[in-house]
Specification:
The N terminus is likely disordered. This protein has 372 residues and is of the alpha/beta class. Helix 13 packs antiparallel against helix 14. Strand 7, helix 12 and strand 8 form a beta-alpha-beta unit. It is globular. It is 35% helix and 12% strand.
């Protein structure tokens, strides 16, 4: 679902929002395609699975994207960059606004591996492309997968791919892993060992986004310039466990303490602002500030599924949320979502669907703000 073209021309007609990532970053998606960034859509870069990463980086399609962005051609980029454009329209902070300006010459400085959809969680806002547990329930429409819902992409990180990657890796400063859940994925450990043998990891920052359910042996962390763990938390206690199906709050707290004890490691928390947690965001913020420094809590606004976007919070609950966030001086970030028009029926119908098809316990016991 994309807004009409006038949104893009209206939002950007007087601005030059050149993003850093097409000049310096690659995201390898769970299905093996390459993307401009972690939240971009694959169009207009029409890449095929297993295409050489070296050819992609130096190819005409990515050059066309850079040219379109440099010339403010948002008609060309409207689908690929939909998430940032949509956030800008809604008054939210877009990812591109948090990044530095690109250099004139493309140099690959950052790469993100969305390894595949192997995951031990089935989060309510997630989908089959990023969780094999969800894929087992819903199936895939567009991608091949095995009987247990795992994307059939084991051939991606073969010797040829790794050799091609080394051709463009001389300026790498940042390697990021997401999933699925990277810490339960064999390719995560394969790639770490490869980088240890073939890159000067003492000059590279390693970033891992994890659900916090699995500890990691410290032997994999000592050779990096810096290690950042970002643990995904959506709420406190039972609500977090319900949103992040598979989570256990006590296990999460135990593993947070485990990660905090690593040397040369920064611990952060990432939260997806959505209809299921914005009502209790004050409680989450207070909890996170008790375990990490204040500037180590990062937020993104949910784009998909639309039905769970935060503006659908009921009007009465929006007023209460406004008051709670204002009381702790955290209102500014969330104000656009509280002011935007929404429809709570979107959330209710979506939760009814998930409760029935994912065999969940009654959601009305958790999200009482949606009970009139």
């Amino acid at each position: 679902m994309f807004p009409s073209l006038w949104i893009y021309t209206y939002v950007f007609k007087d601005s030059k929002m050149t993003c850093w990532e097409p000049w310096h970053h690659i995201t390898v998606d769970t299905n093996g395609t390459y993307k401009l960034c972690c939240i971009s859509h694959e169009w207009p870069v029409s890449l095929k699975k297993y295409e050489s990463i070296h050819e992609y980086w130096n190819g005409t399609e990515l050059a066309d994207v850079r040219n379109a962005m440099a010339n403010n051609n948002w008609n060309y980029l409207k689908k690929s960059c939909h998430s940032c454009i949509y956030n800008k329209k809604m008054g939210f902070i877009s990812r591109s606004e948090t990044l530095p300006k690109p250099e004139q010459t493309p140099k690959l400085r950052s790469i993100q591996f969305k390894l595949n959809n192997v995951c031990n969680f089935a989060c309510l806002m997630c989908g089959p492309k990023y969780s094999n547990k969800i894929a087992k329930i819903r199936g895939f429409r567009h991608y091949p997968y095995t009987h247990n819902g795992v994307l059939d992409n084991d051939e991606i990180y073969n010797d040829q791919w790794l050799s091609e990657f080394l051709k463009i890796s001389e300026n790498i400063e940042h390697i990021k892993f997401t999933g699925g859940e990277p810490l339960v994925n064999p390719n995560f450990y394969k790639l770490l060992n490869f980088f240890k043998s073939n890159l000067d990891t003492s000059k590279i920052k390693l970033e891992i986004i994890t659900n916090g359910s699995v500890p990691l042996d410290s032997e994999y962390l000592s050779m990096w310039k810096e290690v950042e763990f970002k643990i995904s938390i959506e709420a406190v206690g039972e609500r977090n466990d319900y949103i992040r199906q598979g989570s256990n709050w006590k296990t999460l707290q135990r593993n947070i303490q485990y990660f905090k004890e690593f040397r040369n490691t920064n611990l952060k928390v990432g939260t997806v602002i959505q209809a299921l947690n914005i009502f209790v965001m004050d409680e989450l913020i207070n909890y996170v500030e008790s375990i990490v420094p204040k500037n180590h809590h990062e937020f993104v606004f949910l784009i998909n599924p639309y039905a769970l976007q935060p503006q659908h919070l009921p009007a009465k609950a929006k007023i209460q949320t406004f008051e709670k966030l204002n009381k702790i001086n955290k209102l500014d970030l969330f104000l656009p979502a509280l002011k935007a028009n929404g429809d709570a029926n979107n959330v209710i119908m979506h939760l009814d669907f998930l409760e029935k098809n994912h065999n969940l316990k009654p959601w009305r016991e958790i999200f009482k703000e949606y009970i009139c």
